[in-house]
Amino acid sequence: MGSSEGLTEWVLRASRGEASAYSELYRRSRPMVARLVAGFAPLDPDEVEDVIQETFVRAFRALPRLKEVGAFEAWLLSIARNRARTRLERKSSTRRLEDDVADPEPDTVPHIPEALQLERDIEVVRRLIAELPEGEEKRTVQLFYIEGELSAREIAEKLGVGKSAVTMRLERFRSRIKRELLRRVLAGRWE
Amino acid sequence: MRHLNADALSALARREPEAVAYFREHLGTSCDTCEQFLATHSGPDVLDGQVDALLLGMGPVAKQDAPLDEVGLARVRRGLRQGRPDTRRWGLIAGAIAASVLAVVLVPRLRAPTPDTDTDTEWNGVKGPSGNIALELAVVARAADGGLRRLDSESPVEDADVLLLRYHATEAGTALLFQQRAGQGPELLGRFPLEAGTHDLEGPQGLAGVSLEGESGPVTLWLVGATGGQEPTPEAVRDVLVGGSSAWEQSRLAVTRFDVSVGSGQNPR
Q1: What contacts B153, CB < 8 A, 6 or more positions away?
Q2: Which of A134, A146, B53, B210 could be bridged to A1 by S-S, CB 3.0 to 4.6 A?
Q3: Cβ <8 Å between B50 and A181
Q4: Which residue of chain A is at minimal alpha-carbon distance from B204?
Q5: How confident is the model at residue B182 (pLDDT cuts 50, 70, 90)?
Q6: In this structure, is residue A27 part of a structural domain?
Q7: Which pLDDT band holds residue B268 (cuts at 50, 70, 90)?
């Protein structure tokens, strides 16, 4: 969202084939991708690195087809989430190996207007966190998203709960945010 | 009451007015069914990425000048060339190797110390009068059937082989491992801690091996060591390697190389 602004120039240069731009995109984007993947506690450190690598390989390969350069960050994070989910589902054998979560096609990613509503979005998230009943889920959300230092694995260890439980809490909270943002999209806030 | 499903999501992605109007109202209040669906299905569009960007943006502000993860970027570059990012792990794989197989340590090349480095008082914290590190490298090929064979430099190998490395270092330090194909520049494979003595090359993921899958023709492995506190950047090492032996002499690095010739399974054992 907001940080996409600083990436736009590098996305444009990378899409023109400048090798150094890919390095810069990687340098700037990797921390957020890594942070996202760190929310999938059942993935071990090797698997996390694999997911990060695969995310950037897929994104960089498809980058020249990305029409909306301002959507790079959201597109990249969508890919990262899909890669992490696919790896997790394969690991838990809930899917056949050939099944794969499809990434957003770069040439159909829609325009994302500047984050004029970012402050409101942040307020929505803060409100939803505040509305959570005191307990483990709220503590997990605060540790991962607000304090932003510990991985889901580390949170599981800190709270003395299973790794999957931490990821499930984060995903449950995230689904509320996604519902709220989808409603706002449908209400025309990005139209 | 309707809830989100794949059809509804497709309709929303197409901005169908009826679906938009209905779910705009429906999603105004908490709905476990729809939230469960949203948690397990991507989209529409890049909404997932927008949600994650928003949530991750709630945390501490990330450093704008975060250092480049050279090793990670090298993995990505390698994955881009291979076209099948799932099938290899950077060419670096974990493997088991019998140390006895490597009892004979080869010495392909060693950097000779220079007078400057011998008298440099800024070189602190390392053992020995000059702080130089000497490095030796031995290589064993592990075949697809698990068989091991010790290699001499310029040995023929197969593209199904995995090269396992063992080193002897006179000091503790750090080594960068590069791979170089004919006509191309050295490519960083990884960074490894060095211990004084003779050890298998080992990183956080275990023993390191270099997969030759997809390779053909001459391939050179470079293991470049430096003592603690003197670790060069991968770019600096590349410059040294490209600069040839004179550049090695002027650097404080221990440069070892090992050449193999990769065939496609037709090489004699």
Answers
A1: B106, B108, B257, B258, B259, B260
A2: B53
A3: yes
A4: A46
A5: confident
A6: yes
A7: very low
CA B230, CA B127: separation in Å to the nearest integer? 13
Residue type, B186: P
| Residue ranges making up the domain that contains A60 | 4-91
- Both tokens assigned to B87: 């099938």
CATH code of the domain in which A151 resides: 1.10.10.10
Identity of the residue in B34, B39, B59 whose CB atom sits nearest the CB atom of A172: B39
Residues 45-84 of chain A with CB under 8 A from chain B are 45-46, 49-50, 52-54, 56-58, 60-61, 71, 73-82
Residue B94 has pLDDT above 60, yes or no: no
Q: Using alpha carbons only, how large is chain B's radius of gyration in Å?
A: 26
Contact A172 B53 (CB under 8 A): no
For chain B, the domain total comes to 2
Q: What is the structure's pLDDT at A2?
A: 42
Contact list, A147 vs chain B (CB under 8 Å): 59-60
Residue pair B248/B235 in contact (Cβ under 8 Å)? The answer is no
Cβ contact (<8 Å) for A75 and B80?
Answer: no
What integer is the mean pLDDT of B106-133?
A: 36
**What's the complex ipTM?**
0.88
B68 touches chain A (CB under 8 A): yes
